[in-house]
Amino acid sequence: MADTAKMKTSPGPDHEGARVVLSARGLRKDFGGFNAVNNVDLDVHHARVHALIGPNGAGKTTVFNLLTKFLQPTSGTIMLLGENITRTPPARVARMGLVRSFQISAIFPHLTVLENVRVALQRPNGLAIQFWRSMGALDELNERAMQLLEQVGLQDAPNMLAADLSYGRKRVLEIATTLALDPKVLLLDEPMAGMGQEDVGNVARLISKVAKSRAVLMVEHNLRVVADICDHVTVLQRGEILASGDYRTVSQDERVRIAYMGTEHE
Ligand SMILES: Nc1ncnc2c1ncn2[C@@H]1O[C@H](COP(=O)(O)OP(=O)(O)OP(=O)(O)O)[C@@H](O)[C@H]1O
């Protein structure tokens, strides 16, 4: 059952001393007669990386869709920065700072790297792309765009077409466009999917870096990455939480080893 009584009403520190910025209690989603998510409690902390893992069909994407309000929960409560967002429309939730990465499809391939970030920077202000803005405003935008590119390590490629970037650097550009919105909570859906080992390392380092000033919640299948950069791991199985804790604790949980990780993974 939903445990709303225990739920935080303001983003104060929890017992571990870190601020809870996003939290869910008793989250449930039924599709017709099928129960996809059941009784999920989740606390996502500022300046931490939190992984949501589990076998195919465990309900990870559905939980993401519930948190971002793309799906309305059948029951349960979601709080963001102290505000109850259970019934809040997705666009407002995004404006409040809960931003989901849409992977490479969010990039404009025929714009340059710099232009992609500039377009993203204009979004929070609700401005359409304006070609005739004053030079001063454009310079300021370029400066902020270059700062973002430096933050993610794309400062050497501002004038490259996004389409010509390697797969891994496209993913990095996509993260940069997400960071342009200055999210308080960043949701990443399988950020390592389809990448080679070198790119995985780069993106993992980038995620750790951006998580210093915001919360990150990510669905990820690469358990090495989860072990390396995630402070907290929640394991889902058939829509329910099987285990939750740091990677070491969770990976030693017998039920998790049997259900998901296999016994060979330390
Ligand atoms: N719109 C929907 N209508 C009916 N069933 C759905 C719908 N969306 C998801 N499901 C079902 O809910 C369950 C959870 O799906 P979900 O996509 O959340 O799992 P997942 O953990 O993200 O899986 P994967 O790792 O394969 O992406 C699955 O059995 C799926 O078939």
From TrEMBL:
Q: Which Pfam families match?
A: ABC_tran
Q: Does the keyword Transport apply?
A: yes
Q: Which InterPro entries match?
A: AAA+_ATPase, ABC_AA/LPS_Transport, ABC_transporter-like_ATP-bd, P-loop_NTPase
What residue stretches are annotated with the ABC transporter domain? 22-263
Q: List the GO terms this entry assigns under cellular component, sorted alphabetically.
A: plasma membrane
Keywords of the record: ATP-binding, Nucleotide-binding, Transport
GO molecular function term, any single one: ATP binding
Q: Does the keyword Kinase apply?
A: no
User: According to the lineage, what is the superkingdom?
Assistant: Bacteria
Q: Which SUPFAM superfamilies match?
A: P-loop containing nucleoside triphosphate hydrolases
Which PANTHER family does the UniProt record give?
ABC TRANSPORTER ATP-BINDING PROTEIN, CONSERVED COMPONENT OF ABC TRANSPORTER FOR NATURAL AMINO ACIDS-RELATED
Protein name per UniProt: ABC transporter ATP-binding protein
Q: Can you name the source organism?
A: Paramesorhizobium deserti
